[in-house]
Amino acid sequence: MVTIFVLLILGIALVELIKGLSANGTPPFLQKFSWQMDLAYFMWSNIVLFRCLFAVAILVSFFLIPSNARLFALLISIPFFALWAGIYWLFNRYWVGRFKFLPITQKVFSTAKDNQIDLDAQVVGVDHNGEQKAFPAQMLFYHHQIPDEVGGQAILATYCGMCRAGRVYNRMVEGHALDLTLVGAISFNAVFRDQVTGTWWRQETGEAAKGPWKGKWLEDISFEQMSLDNWLQKHPKSTVLQYDPTFAQKYNFFSKLLNYEVSLPGWHRQETPPLVIGVEVNGQSHAFDFEELKKARLAHAALGGQNIVAMTDAENTSAFVYECALGKEVLNFSLKDGLYADDKSNSNWNHLGRCVSGKLKGKQLNAVQSYQQFLRAWITFHPDTSFHHF
Q: Quick check: 73 and 2 in contact, CB under 8 A?
């Protein structure tokens, strides 16, 4: 009976370990399986029941031990109880999203004149209903999600460090503004839990993957990722979210992560993972290797019945994707003195999609929603994607 007593203690420790690893620190070979979400949601939803059942079983087994052997059983169980306590603390009080990545405590938006954020910093910019706001990527990287309002619309700006990808969503569902906390990472992607309904949402797609609202999708809000300098050139009246002083050191560290100046240990990390610029047009997905695009500076593609062009700025900090159509004309571009010349009028365009000289001066190309992220994340959620051949 002493053996059964000890095995039950090991059992509850194993259950806590499975629950923790199912969504935090999951080995890569598990991240590749679709059932990881099923396992994680099952364990997180039933962990209290498991704890109660094991607690009752441990108590019953203890009292079934002969009285003269109970002290011995308690003594040999100490390291096993310590093991369970350590696993419990690690995955419930430390290595878990809501404690490791705390929510923002204050939001201050400044104009370009008063901005204190480095102009080289990457931002997730939103232009909605005549209002523009920029959210520094290193802030989103740490917090994973920042709720806000742009142009009268409640939004959720998100970022997943494992995907190295931003997404922006309409925060309203069924008339309610979502209140989300970070669960962890599943399928190499951040997962949030709705505090009201307990629904689990994928950061990459906005899908309600598990819970009462399963099958619902968050509405996409258009955004662009680029350097703050580029964003302010394009939207000089935009406001910029400033650092929350509570987390200044965290932001500086995550800025270094974004620039590959430091790395974190972990099963999900790879050496210099490849980045792609992904687009989806009329249900078809396409990806440009970001390093190759930087070398070429531009690339044309036909996707979903639409002609598009991908460009970079001269500093190769940002990528931009546009429709090639201007009215009924379909334009093709070539590099010319650091700008992009079209084949119809030989007018010159900059990387922001504006014609700066020539017959078409003042015209603006329509932006195509694009995503800068790790290749592994793009193909996980876009398995039928095509790749550009440079």
A: yes
